[in-house]
Amino acid sequence: MSQCKSFTWTNPNPAVARDLDVGFTVAEITTVDRTNGGSWYWNDGMAAGEVLDVDSGTLTTSNGFTALSESSNYGAAISGFTNANPGVLTVDDTGPAGFAIGDTIKVEGLADDGSATSLNQDYVIASLTATTITTATKTTAYSTYVSGGKVTRVSDTNGDAIPTENYARRGITVGTTPVGANSAVMTAIVKGKESVT
């Protein structure tokens, strides 16, 4: 017997592509638009981006399904660091790593202009949103952010060390064709390559 998971969601308006983190290597997937009808299929013998419209039998070679496999994903990727009082990081997503106000975080691997104190160091989180982390540190005299970098948790609000965790995803990206219509209720059935014993 192979691994299998199902997902149900309601699309936003407009409908957008989405990643399904299923936790295993995907062998095949079918999505069904339960509101308007229609279903789409992909298996790992098809190319990335392809999708078969089950109802019409039409094979499309773009905006379909693409396997999602990350070997490592630690913390959050940094896309900006504003020199301000206090300093503000722009990141891809604060949720998976569990960042919280009062945590000590480590910024590393970013490129800055080297003109002053490096931005690569530890900070305490003063506030955060889904895509920003405001530090408790004034960074106006620090170097200017150029590119890249990661931010990870070092310790929680009690000062307890946080072990480094790998948040890598395995699953599939559902492109704009098989994701269904605007505001539609969708179901996906995903089957894995590995067998369950």
Can you characterise this structure?
With 197 residues, the chain is mostly beta strands. A hairpin with a 5-residue loop joins β3 and β4 (39-43). The mean pLDDT is 91. The radius of gyration is 21 Å and the shape is elongated. It has no helices and 17 strands. It folds into two domains: 2-70 and 169-195, no CATH class; 76-155, Ubiquitin-activating enzyme E1, FCCH domain (Elongation Factor Tu (Ef-tu), domain 3), CATH 2.40.30.180. The strands form four sheets. The chain has a six-stranded antiparallel beta sheet, with no helix packed on it. The termini are close together. It has strands at 2-10, 18-21, 26-33, 39-43, 51-53, 58-60, 65-69, 76-82, 88-91, 104-108, 111-112, 122-128, 132-135, 145-147, 150-155, 170-174, 185-195.
- Total strand segments: 17
- Secondary structure: helix percent: under 10%
- The rounded distance between the terminal residues' Cα atoms is 7 Å
Task: Please list the strands of the largest sheet in the order they lie side by side.
Answer: 1-17-3-4-5-6
Tell me the structural class. mainly beta
| Whole-number count of domains | 2
- Uncertain segments are none
String of helices and strands:
EEEEEEEEEEEEEEEEE
Shape: elongated
Proportion of beta-strand residues: over 45%
Radius of gyration over C-alpha positions, nearest whole angstrom = 21 Å
**Overall average pLDDT:** 91
Number of helices: 0
Task: Describe the largest sheet.
Answer: 6 strands, antiparallel
Name some characteristics of this structure.
Elongation Factor Tu (Ef-tu), domain 3; 17 strands; mainly beta; six-stranded antiparallel sheet; 2 domains; six-stranded antiparallel β-barrel; 197 residues
